[in-house]
Amino acid sequence: MKESRAGTRKEKTSKPSSVSALPLILDIDDFKGDFSFDALFGNLVNELLPSFREDEGDSAEGHGNISGNDVLANGNLRVPSDAAKSAQGLSPPLFPEVDALLSLFQDSCRELVDLRQQIDGKLYNLKKEVSLQDSKHRKTLAELEKGVDGLFDSFARLDSRISSVGQTAAKIGDHLQSADAQRETASQTIELIKYLMEFNGSPGDLMELSPLFSDDSRVAEAASIAQKLRSFAEEDIGRQGIAVPPASRGLEVAVANLQEYCNELENRLLARFDAASQRRELSTMAECAKILSQFNRGTSAMQHYVATRPMFIDVEVMNADTRLVLGDQGSQISPNNVARGLSSLYKEITDTVRKEAATIMAVFPSPNEVMSILVQRVLEQRVTALLDKLLMKPSLVNLPPMEEGGLLSYLRMLAVAYEKTQELARDLRAVGCGDLDVEGLTESLFLAHKDEYPEHEQASLRQLYQTKMEELRAESQQLSESTGTIGRSKGASVASSHQQISVTMVSEFVRWNEEAISRCILFSSQPATLATNVKAVFACLLDQVSQYITDGLERARDSLAEAAVLREKFVLGTIVSRRVAAAAASAAEAAAAAGESSFRSFMVAVQRCASSVVIVQQYFANSISRLLLPVDGAHAASCEEMATAMSTAEAAAYKGLQQCIETVMAEVERLLSAEQKATDYRSPDDGIAPDHRPTNACTRVVAYLSRVLESAFTGLEGLNKQAFLTELGNRLHKGLLNHWQKFTFNPSGGLRLKRDITEYGDFVRSFNAPSVDEKFELLGIMANVFIVAPESLSSLFEGTPSIRKDSQRFIQLREDYKSAKLAARLSSLWPSSS
Predict the structure, then answer these.
(1) Locate the Exocyst complex component Sec10 N-terminal domain: which residues (predicted)?
(2) Which residues pair with 745 in a beta bridge?
């Protein structure tokens, strides 16, 4: 094996470009396409590696008896140290083909260098060839660009020539066309002059005309020529003016004859058109209409067709319209029935117009103009005749009676008619009405009614209010008459309660106004007009509600005043008999009952008044304000009017509440005078334990106040309630002070007084009036002047000097005021009081 390898090295040394044992083949094609270095390397070494594997297998068998511990990590064998050198000299190398592989790689490198040189040479030659070809190509492109520029110049010259030739041809064509037109015009003129001379005979002589003008099959041609002749003759007369020589007056004869002929021809065509219309021969009708369009643009034919429609000439159709909408003569009509009748009638009219539209489209050359005339005739004749019977505009001086519906009936009919007619206009617009402003024409039908509409609406609201108030007064009068057996005061109370303010009535006022506002929206298309009308209508509601609740409050005040008169009537002197006193006391009780009833009635009136105002405010916020906002200042002005209208009711309510306080205090004073005894606060010193219960007068007064003020607590709200109760508390405080000034107190009476004050204070605490609570607390402190010993009076008011003045008056009511010489003692303690 060594010899073969050595031989291989020698051959490689002598022949560096080849290897005999392992021939090396490198070709330039190996590097083309999908080149892989691993494949190239494998092809180079595969011939040597198999022999290496066989030698390695033999070596492994020769040393098979060597243990694993004798193999080093690098693959060499471990031998004993004393025989290492001899063993190394005897063992063969582990990789004997390494020299062959090394020689192989060196040869491969040399061949790769040779291949690279070959490729570099080829690349150089290719570059030279490419440069040469590029130079030739650039030269060719430059020559082609010159050729193309020349070609473009040739095309531009050709296009210019073609354009010039085309213009010349167009001019020639125009000249030829003009010449042909002139020739044709000259020919027609000659023909027309010939016909004109025929008409230039004696006036009214149409017997010698050409057959063209009498041939029914050439009517269209005859009509066209007659119109041309007529226009020519009229223009010639117009140019000559007045100063024409007598010889030229023949054209006037021609014009007269032409006019007569055209009239006769037009009448003949209209007769033929009518005959065809009765037979529903649309083709004949269309032919006649086309010919008639040459006479005044066909206006006579269009108007004649529309005028001969049955809906315009049949009286029975008009009577049927009236019966359908208004019902039979003498029957009561209602807006709902009228609305149904108008809907049916207008649907019938729309269907009729739709059918006529189909005929018009098939017959007339200008159908839009015919539709415009037809729709205008429908609105101005058929609809207007019906509206005149339906809407009889009432006088604002003499209003129609409510038994016949009043102004409201007229306004409802007007709204129904207007709304339904607007729907008819929209339906007719959908069917087709040419250039006719059908909406504007519809508006014009109602102008006479809309001009005074706001005044009628306000007058209607006033009429409704007056009628309702008359009904209420009649009911009240009837009730008063039915209670004739009742006493005057009781009868007045019943009548007053019957005329009490009703929230339901105010809601009815609002419903009237809502209906009126809906009509304002319907009739007012412009925001400014709408705002003006709405503001005026809402002002009517403010006047009605203000007057109604003010009258109701005034009636409640009258009841309070009547009760006050009854109280004054039974005020007695100091010296009366017992029988008279008993009768007066009984009458005073009745007067007190009347006052209490009037008080409750007024509180109910105030409560309903507040509820009514809330209803109006909510109605304004929800329905009125948005309609006023588009106009500057309208909303603020209405708010101011609302505040002004309610101020009258507020003034009446304020006066009535003052009367209520007077009524309550009068009864409190009567109870105190009748029930309070001198012994209540000056009980005898008989050894019996003092009574710590409130006095009978106090109990009666508190019970009365609790009973009567229950309606005030429920009827008043917010600041009104607080102000009323505060004022009543102050008056009660003052009245009690004045009342107690009439009595003398001993210590046990002072305790009884303090118990009364506590009872009064507990009651007025329900008023939620801090100032009133403070006054009654101070009363409790002042009551101590009747309880403490005389020598303790000086220290009693050290913490509350503000009540010293009232306390001095209380001290004078002590039973021992004179015996204890309290006047001198107080003057020494409080010099300023002397």
Answers:
(1) 99-215
(2) 814
From the centroid of its chain, how far is CA 176? 69
Which residues have CB under 8 Å from 28's CB, separation 6+?
A: 115, 118, 119
The token pair at 643 is 């505040």
Q: If pLDDT is split at 50, 70 and 90, which confidence band does 414 have? A: very high
Our CA angle for 84, 85, 89, nearest 5°, is: 115
User: Is residue 661 within 8 Å of residue 705, measured between CB atoms?
Assistant: no
Answer yes or no: are the C-beta atoms of 537 and 513 closer than 8 Å: yes
Give the per-residue pLDDT at 461: 94
How many contiguous H segments (helices) and E segments (strands) does the chain have?
A: 32, 0
Tell me if the pTM is above 0.70.
no
Give per-residue burial for 303-342: e unless 16+ CB within 10 Å, then b.
Answer: ebbbeebebeeeeeebeebbeebbeeeeeeeebeebbebb
Q: How many CA atoms lie within 13 A of 181 on its CB side?
A: 6
pLDDT, residue 563, reads 85
Question: Look-up: residue for tokens 């204070």?
Answer: 761
pLDDT, mean of residues 325-354: 86
Beta-carbon contacts of residue 369 (< 8 Å; ≥ 6 apart): 298, 302, 434
77 beta partners = 71
C-alpha span between 639 and 647 (Å, rounded): 12
Residue type, 151: L
DSSP-based three-state secondary structure for 48: coil
Alpha helices in 63-207 (DSSP H): 84-90, 98-199
Phi and psi, residue 71, nearest 5°: -100, 125
Rounded distance, CA 252 to CA 236, Å? 10
